[in-house]
Amino acid sequence: MHQMGKVGSRSVVDSLHASLPDAQIEHLHTLTEAGLLAVRASCESRGKPVPPHVIDAERVRREVIDAGVEADVITLVREPVGRNVSAFFQNSVGDLWEVPDEQIDELCKRFIEGYAHTQPLQWFKREFDHVYGINMHEAPFDKSVGTRVYRAGRFRVLVLRCELSDEAKSTAIASFLSVPRLEWVRSNETGDKIQRHVYARFKERLRMPEALLDQLYISAYTRHFYPPDAIAGFRAKWSKRPSHGEAASGSLSG
């Protein structure tokens, strides 16, 4: 697995471990030399130990990427606002109990004004261009299905939309890996880590500015992976406007 954070990757990894206990499975967010060096430097500057997942990524970089070894890669995409909301809560909010509406409103303001909203728009260009030589925003993608398999030299890459049903993701992964079936395990839901009612109230009260929605939903990233009716649904959900498009669905998984 090689994907940005908060796109439902933990469920995929746990499902792979459950169904393929003898397979070597990695769960990585960056494989670029620059990215790994930056994370290590940040940890060292703060006097923090380097996380195990970074050490694993450095090993995969040496033993697979730089060594010329073939590999199968699974990655996921998620609509940017839903992904960012989930990441904001995990990384910035922490555990909350019952809070007054004004504190929820302050959290919404913090998210709108202070979060780096364009992070998911740049991830594939930063990672896949450099690691696999794939310009994912130009590679054909079947928006009607929500999955696609690519071949890039010694790498096979499966791209999945996070918003697909568990059954659709399980079927696509099983086909990609040529296994009869993948036992699906739901893991790492944001709502399990924080108080569900606070998270739900945040999403109910959050109203994203139209200019920010324009930036995120007119982006090459979003338009490449999602059809217009799905994008209209996402916009309606986060702007609180009625939509004639398909209702947006989403996952809280990380």
Number of helices: 12
> How are the strands ordered across the major sheet?
1-3-2
Radius of gyration: 19 Å
Distance from N terminus to C terminus (CA atoms, Å) equals 13 Å
Keywords:
254 residues; mainly alpha; 12 helices; 8% strand; globular
Descriptive notes:
This protein is mainly α. It has one domain (9-239). The protein has helices spanning 9-19, 33-45, 52-65, 80-93, 101-114, 119-131, 166-177, 190-193, 196-205, 210-217, 220-225, 228-239; strands at 71-77, 147-152, 155-161. The protein has a 3-stranded mixed sheet, covered by helices on one side. The longest helix has 14 residues, at 52-65.
List the helices and strands and how they pair.
Elements: H1 9-19, H2 33-45, H3 52-65, E1 71-77, H4 80-93, H5 101-114, H6 119-131, E2 147-152, E3 155-161, H7 166-177, H8 190-193, H9 196-205, H10 210-217, H11 220-225, H12 228-239
Parallel strand pairs: 1-3
Antiparallel strand pairs: 2-3
Helix pairs in contact: 2-3, 5-9
